[in-house]
Amino acid sequence: MIRSLFPVFLLALSLSSSPAQEAKATELKVGSFTFKVAPPWVAKAEPRMMSAGGFTLPAKEGAAPVEADFYHFGAGGGGGIEPNLKRWQTQFAPGADGKPPVMEREEITVGGQKALMVTMKGTFLSGPAISPNKVPMPNYAMLGAILQSADGDVFLKITGPEAATLASREQVKEMVKAAFAK
């Protein structure tokens, strides 16, 4: 009997998370929110210009990594939701029809607090916001989230190769929801 239960015990052990695995989670406080990620996400050593910090999902098989950058400019700062969404759209090359990429929107409400998540795909124009020299990155995607707060909205922008970025969508959504927990 004990011998027959041993494989089940080993399987249960391998599926449970150990305290050592949980200890490796990385946190980033941005505005009134704390964001947590677990491996394989890692904290960025050098945040982007104007960023409060970020995370990187290392690349697989020679592809570019997925990058998450967080921005907070204080109460009333950052320009608001719609202007940021329009700015994010302009960070993609227009399609063959000359129009910006389609933006899918999803509103998330947790305990009365709201966040807006958006998804865009296309040729991302990589580079600093104020630089005229952008590097076209075809087949890229962006997951954006704007978490509303009286202390100032937090803007989360995740970019990378389309397949890897879109594969992280549910994980990002859960990270956003968890940031509302006190």
Structural overview:
Helices cover 25% and strands 36% of the residues. The chain is α+β, with helices and mostly antiparallel strands. The chain has one domain (24-179): Mog1/PsbP, alpha/beta/alpha sandwich (Protein Transport Mog1p, Chain A, 3-Layer(aba) Sandwich). The strands form 2 sheets. It has a 7-stranded antiparallel beta sheet with strand order 3-4-5-9-8-7-6, sandwiched between helices. The chain has a two-stranded antiparallel sheet with strand order 1-2. The longest helix is centred in the first third of the chain and has 14 residues, at 2-15. It is globular, with a radius of gyration of 19 Å. It starts with a helix and ends with a helix. Mean pLDDT is 85; it is low at 1-23.
Supply the key terms.
single chain, about 180 residues, alpha+beta, Protein Transport Mog1p, Chain A, 7-stranded antiparallel beta sheet, two-stranded antiparallel sheet, 5 helices, globular, disordered N terminus
Quick recap of the structure?
The chain is 25% helix and 36% strand.
Number of helices, counting only DSSP H or I runs of 4 residues or more = 5
Dominant shape = globular
Structural class: alpha+beta
What is the average of the pLDDT values? 85
The main β sheet shows up as: 7 strands, antiparallel
Which band does the percent of strand residues land in?
A: 35-45%
**How are the strands of the biggest sheet laid out side by side?**
3-4-5-9-8-7-6
Q: Any low-confidence stretches, pLDDT <50, length ≥5?
A: 1-23
What is the name of the CATH superfamily? Mog1/PsbP, alpha/beta/alpha sandwich
Order of helices and strands: HHEEEEEHEEEEHH
